[in-house]
Design brief:
Elements lengths: L32 E2 L7 H9 L6 E2 H13 L4 H8 L3 H14 L9
Parallel strand pairs: 1-2
Helix pairs in contact: 1-2, 2-3, 2-4, 3-4
Length: about 110
Amino acid sequence: MSVDLTAATRRRTPAAKPAKVTAPAGESTAARLLPDDGIVDPIAIEIAASGVRPVALTHTERVLAAARILACGGSQATITARLHVPAKTARTLTAQARRIGDPGDLWAA
């Protein structure tokens, strides 16, 4: 059975309050940042870390995706490319990810 995941949307808040998606000026909406809501989506982290396609992430999910990339031998340049973020943001994510280390199995929670 084949499922089209490109049409799926990630809804983080009730229908009455849609999640605000922000993108820095001059960047495409591919660099989406969702508000932190305490929910960590391991599927979104894996998609982002693999670089398959752009995906909206919370800040926590971005740090975990960066940690996953670094744990697999990636670099700051890899983080920039796969997470679709500017180099300055990738530097910040790299520093934060190195503090937490390898996130391990995200499905174990």
